């Protein structure tokens, strides 16, 4: 689950990470009041207005601007709120800005070249260890740094059993070229950042930039946070931070129905039971000359209502030209699934306007095939993987 910048900073702050302070606003009037409050609390006269969307590169699209007085705060906030922000990480259509963050200006006058670093904490799947990735080249695309100057990117792997050790935090500060008070501040920052990542059950914490001020303070100026959905049951307060306006509406609907669904860019919808079978089914679709339009796992209770709901979600994608139902009957009986497919087909009527290939294997597979073949419905049955692939190819070429 992705978070907005202001939400990520709230988590960081709760674990003792120094942050650029800010207040979220939904209207230009709220933005002005937020700016006034920040001035009272921090003494800042200038404010940074930041669009809150789940996408990076906001500054390049005009979603991050500096306001030097309250009139500019109101004017800039009015321009950013409601805009369709297009960044390198959004579609060509962009994302609607519903909220903005009014943040203090932390770049001191006279700091013509502030020290900005890049830092992220994530899982290295190849080693099964957490990893801190960091660079002296903050404030710019880390992808460009990796491509053009890879020697400026450092990594520090952490054993989950021991956690971040003191010498590792010192090593990070040393590699960033810090000394004195700034060195000590960075050690504290890195330690608190890793604790925040670990205790919040996050999949990613990315801070770009981490700023060293002229008086040697270290703070997070930005925060990109992705939480592990599988651990949200332990963090009810974090789960409440979900902003469904930023998510794919079809995926939101599927989650509400208890379906595991991921939207893709292909032309063949797939409905399966089990994540491993889903991956194999997507390979099957590619083999047949198509591209998977989605990942959809209906789980072990593929009854008529669940199957009908799944069909409805798949068909919301206008790019779908065929649907492959690939079910292995282990716990669930194939004939029960087949009845669910037939009932769903009857109930949906002309809403189903693409060919359906139904491959059922496992418990009562023979009865399931007979049920589908004798249903009178335009459902193409199959029992083997290759047979299903051939039939997908046939309907795509028809």
Automatic annotation (TrEMBL):
| Reaction(s) catalysed by this chain's protein | succinate + ATP + CoA = succinyl-CoA + ADP + phosphate; GTP + succinate + CoA = succinyl-CoA + GDP + phosphate
State which pathway it belongs to. Answer: Carbohydrate metabolism; tricarboxylic acid cycle; succinate from succinyl-CoA (ligase route): step 1/1
- Keyword vocabulary terms for this entry: ATP-binding, Ligase, Magnesium, Metal-binding, Nucleotide-binding, Tricarboxylic acid cycle
**Domain ATP-grasp intervals:** 9-236
**UniProt-listed GO biological process terms:** succinyl-CoA metabolic process; tricarboxylic acid cycle
User: Pfam families from the entry?
Assistant: ATP-grasp_2, Ligase_CoA
| The keyword Methyltransferase belongs to this UniProt entry's keyword annotation | no
Per the entry, the cofactor note is: Binds 1 Mg(2+) ion per subunit.
Q: Which protein family is named in the record? A: Belongs to the succinate/malate CoA ligase beta subunit family.
List the PANTHER family: SUCCINATE--COA LIGASE [GDP-FORMING] SUBUNIT BETA, MITOCHONDRIAL, SUCCINYL-COA SYNTHETASE BETA CHAIN
- Which HAMAP family does the annotation name? Succ_CoA_beta
Q: What is this protein called?
A: Succinate--CoA ligase [ADP-forming] subunit beta
What is the originating organism of this protein? Tenacibaculum holothuriorum
């Amino acid at each position: 689950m992705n978070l907005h910048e202001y939400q990520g900073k709230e988590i960081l702050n709760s674990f003792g990470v120094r942050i650029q302070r800010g207040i979220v606003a939904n209207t230009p009037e709220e933005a002005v009041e937020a700016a006034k409050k920040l001035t009272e609390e921090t003494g800042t006269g200038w404010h940074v207005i930041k669009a809150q969307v789940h996408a990076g590169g906001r500054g390049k699209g005009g979603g991050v601007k500096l306001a030097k007085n309250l009139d500019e705060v109101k004017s800039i906030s009015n321009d950013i709120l409601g805009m369709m922000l297009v960044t390198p990480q959004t579609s060509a259509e962009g994302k609607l800005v519903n909220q903005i963050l009014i943040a203090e200006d932390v770049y001191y006058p006279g700091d013509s070249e502030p020290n900005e670093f890049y830092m992220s904490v994530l899982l290295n799947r190849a080693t099964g260890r957490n990893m801190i990735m960091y660079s002296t080249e903050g404030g710019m695309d880390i992808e460009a740094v990796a491509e053009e100057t890879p020697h400026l990117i450092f990594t520090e792997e952490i054993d989950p059993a021991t956690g971040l050790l003191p010498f590792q935090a010192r090593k990070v500060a040393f590699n960033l070229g810090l000394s004195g008070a700034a060195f000590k501040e960075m050690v504290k920052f890195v330690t608190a950042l890793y604790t925040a990542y670990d205790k919040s059950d996050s999949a990613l914490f990315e801070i770009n930039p981490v700023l060293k001020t002229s008086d040697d303070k270290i703070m997070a100026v930005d925060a990109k946070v992705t939480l592990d959905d599988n651990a949200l049951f332990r963090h009810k307060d974090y789960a409440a931070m979900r902003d469904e306006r930023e998510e794919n509406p079809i995926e939101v609907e599927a989650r509400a129905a208890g379906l595991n669904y991921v939207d893709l860019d292909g032309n063949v919808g797939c409905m399966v039971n089990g994540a491993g079978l889903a991956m194999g089914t997507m390979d099957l679709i590619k083999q047949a000359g198509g591209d998977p339009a989605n990942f959809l796992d209906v789980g072990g209770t593929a009854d008529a209502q669940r199957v009908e709901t799944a069909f409805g979600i798949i068909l919301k994608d206008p790019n779908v030209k065929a649907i492959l139902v690939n079910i292995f009957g282990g716990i669930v009986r194939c004939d029960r699934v087949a009845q669910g497919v037939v009932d769903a087909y009857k109930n949906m009527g002309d809403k189903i306007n693409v060919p359906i290939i139904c491959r059922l294997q496992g418990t009562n597979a023979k009865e399931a095939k007979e049920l589908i073949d004798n249903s009178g419905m335009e459902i193409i049955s199959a029992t083997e993987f290759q047979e299903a692939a051939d039939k997908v190819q046939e309907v795509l070429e028809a």
